[in-house]
Each structure stands twice: as structure tokens, then as C-alpha cells.
Design a protein that fits this description.
With 579 residues, the protein is an alpha+beta fold. Helix content is 28%, strand content 22%. Strands 9, 11, 16, 17, 18, 21, 22 and 24 form an 8-stranded antiparallel beta sheet that branches. An 8-stranded antiparallel beta sheet has the order 19-15-14-13-12-20-10-23, with no helix packed on it. It has a 3-stranded antiparallel beta sheet with strand order 2-1-6. The longest helix is centred in the middle third of the chain and has 35 residues, at 308-342.
Amino acid sequence: MSKAGIAAWLRRAWQMFAGGEPRKTVVLPGAPRVVSGRPLPKPTPYLLRRFSETPVARKAINTIKDRIAGMRWRVQPKGGSLAGAEDARIEIIASTFEVPNADDSFRSLSEQVLEDLLIGGCGTIEVQLTANPQRPLMLWPVDGLTVQIYAGWSGNADEPRYAQLTPWGERVDLLNDELIYIRQNPRTSTPFGLGRLEVAFETIQRLLGAQEYAGRLASNTVVQFALWLQELPPATYDKVISWWQNEIEGTGKVPIIANLPAKPEVLRFSEGSDRDLRLEWQRFLIRIIADAFDLPPLLLGLEQDINRSTAEALVDEAFRTAVVPTARLYAEHLTREVIAFLLASLSSSGGNSNAVDCGSGTSLDDHTALTWYAWVYQTSNVGNLNRGVISKNVSSIGNGKALRVTGATGGSNVNRMGVSIQRATTNATFVGSNSSFVTALNTRTFVAVTYDESDGPRGWRGTLSAPVAEINYLTGPTVGSGTTSSDASGNLRIGNFLAGEILSFPGRISVVAIYNRRMSQADLRVHQMRPFCSRDDGCRLFVNLGGGAGTGTQADLSGHGNNCTVSGLSVANHVPIAR
């Protein structure tokens, strides 16, 4: 289940528990009035972008951004996980981050997101599902300052939460699961974050004004002094000017002035020092900007009163106060909204109606040769019952096609793999030996069945540490006779047979693949550790249950359009989708 789906479920559960009363406090009271169906824009994006390109602001942004993007990021299991048990999931997650999309590396993606986070307090990433199970997500950087927010979002996963307003006036609505929105300095008065550059906004304006004045003054220099010759007649005035320009100025001679009716007075036009450029005022403004970015002024070029010992301490302080908090914020969102997006499966407690229904598209009908496989995680014994894993057009055992875990043949709580495929004369069947479905409960297990009319059905099983191998059998395999019966009138179901008929699978199921050809053991071993879908090789259904869709519609990544609907299931930790 997605983050939004979980939040919606918790909200509904709490309202039921509390009597359904809505909250009494006002949402975002300081924000502009919320109009239904109209998103709120982020203010002043143009000026923020412009100011981010000025030298001091750019230095502050790059000091934080480059250190975070250049870190050696890694994916690792949480404390308490068994060594080696998470290798499969870590590899698929790491490959997603290493190549987030066709244009970016993890570093270039991070640099763009962190840039927007520092400028406007809004780093955004679009999340896109793919048909490649080895890289099930594409992560695209988005201009966060163009993203608007529906402040009245109800928490419904199917309701847009964000909208991007394009420069040509088009609005693109985005669901909560389709966009990662990272807020810096979140507040209760507005749905937007507050970027470090926004904090320094007015100070940067003043600095730019001071620098513009200093630039004009330095580029258009004037004489600092003038001589005022009091009450000279015009003829004498002209003689003094000529004498000064021709005999004194630029010669290095000491001027001697005599026989003037009055003593000349020196007029000062400017101080003639750096104080005219207001450099101290500029240094003060740079210190304020450094404070807004939680950086010492040293890192923005102010090196007064700094020696080797104090400089090292200031750099360490900058790492703790500016780099680490931003890196943690970024990592938390990636963990919660990308890794959790991938690490999901659908879980059932064994209720009669729990199932994933993938319909009866023509690409799923009447396979006379097939391979079905899935990664499962069984959490309880089946007793003396049959519980469905994958089935097609099954109204009772013996009809249609079914892969199940059973204890109904040869004793209870033995978790045998059972398969039945209806044929015109006699059915193709087998029942595996004890523990042929899973060797132990709460173990990530790869299960598969292969079939063709000439050789009948075969059962296969593997784990994270054991490559897939054919199971041992209690009865069968029986090849059967006659043509394989049509199953076109019934739906393909995962985790059950038919609602209310046979109990659903007790545990979790993630990746499920349906091929219309019989795979060899070598093929299965490739798919065991690298599940993938190739239409040219017979793939007719490929679903990554719970992976991003929560309990909503499960997309068929084979391209055949056999999307699946979910009933009675919840999201749980993923069983591996790659190794």
C-alpha cells in the first residue's frame, strides 16, 4: 500500500473508532483561502531563481548541495535483519537509485532536487512505474517551484494532491504516489516549505543594491579633491587653470602659488578609501546570508579573524548544522517514499474473499503450455484445507487450472504443493510431498509450476539461498489425456480460487508471472533471482503486487492490459523481487 493509501486507511479507522467526528481545528489558517479544485502556487519563483544565480547565494547553495550529492550513499538493511537475507531487495533498490532515469545518475538527480530544496524549500521527484522488474521505478527531477498544492486534499489516494503549472499555462495533476514532495522548514500556516534562500531573500536584495552602487562608483571614478579659488577675476582664473594643467599636473613638481588675492580652499568630494564602496555593509549582509544557510561566514569568503584552528572547527560546525540535517531530510523521504514504494507485497490472513482478480483477457486464456511463478511468504499452516495461490476458471478442484498449497491430501499442516489442470479425458495433476510448498513458515520462497500436454505438470521451489529445483511428490505427476480444457470463461485469480469457495493463501505474495510456454529449470533459475517479463518470450501477465499501487489497481507490466483488482488484502513487507 502506498503512503497515501496507508494514511487514508488509518484516517478511516480512527474516524470509525472516534465516532466519525471531523477535526475541529482549521487546516492551514494562514494560507490563502482554499478554493476546491484549485491548487495553491508557490510565491515569487522567478525572483528566487534569479537570486540563486548571484555569486554569494550560489556559493552558499553549492556548499551544501555538492557535499550531500557527493556523499557515498548506500542502501543497507535496518538493524536486526539477518546478514545476507536482504541482499536481493538491496540490489534492486540500489540499481533503481544508480540509474533513476534515462538522463540522470543518482548524483545529478540529487543535485537538482537539493537545489530546489535550498532555494524554495520544495524538492520534488516524479515517480513512474516501469515494466522492468530490475528497475521497477523511474525517478524524474521536477522543478519544485512550478508545483502547486491542493491544500484541501482529503487523503484519498485516487485524488490529485499536486499540480504542475507549465510555462504555457497547462496544469498537470499528480497523485500523492506520483510525486515525492520534500519540504524544508514545514509550517502549520502553509502547505509549502521555507527554503534557506527564501529566509535570506530581503538580505540578498539589499546586498545586490549595495554591490550595484559599489560597481557604479568603482567604474566611474571622479577626482577626490578640488581647488576653490576665491574671487579671482576671469583672466586670472584662466591663467591659473592653464598653468596648473600645463606645468604642474602629472609632472611631480611641487606647486608654488603666490600673488593671489585669497588663499585657495581644498574641497573634498569623497573619502578616497574603500569605505566609499560600503564594503563593511556588504560584509555584514554576507554574514546574515551565511546565518540563513546555517553556514559560517568563512565559507562565503569572509576570512577575517580566522586561523587554522578556528577554521577547522567552523567547517565541522557547518557540516553538522547545514549539511547533515538536509541530508537526513533527503534520506528520510527516499526511504519512506521510494524504498517503501518498492518493498511492498499483498498480504492475506486467509479469509474466503481475499484475492487479486486479473480478469480473463484473451492473452490469459487457453494456454496448452504454461509457466506460473511467484515469490511468496507463508505465515501460517493450511490445516487440512486447500488454499489458492494462482488459479484460472476454477469452481472446484479439478476444474480449470490451479496452483495451491494443501493439507487435504495425506494429513494436515504439511504445506504440500498441489496442481490440477483440466483436460478433456483425464486431468493432469500432482500433490507434492510434505513441505514441498515451503520448507518452513515465514520463509521467502519462489514457487513455480510448468506444464505442457506431452509431459504434464511439474512443481518447482527455491529460496534466497537455494536455487530452484523440482519438488518431491506424494502423488503424480499425472500427465492426463485429451486436449487441455478451455478456461476462457473464468478469471485468473491470485491468492485464491473463487471468493467464498476455497480459503485464500495465508501470507504474502509479491511478484507473479504468467508465461504461455514451459520453462526449463535453467530458465526458472534465471527468473528466480531476476524476475522479468519478455512479451516475445511468452510473458502474458507480470504484476508486482503492492509495489507502489498499494491495494489499488495492480498494473500488468507485460503490456497486455491484464490489470488486477484487489479484494480483502493489505500491504506488508515485500518478498524479494530480485537478487
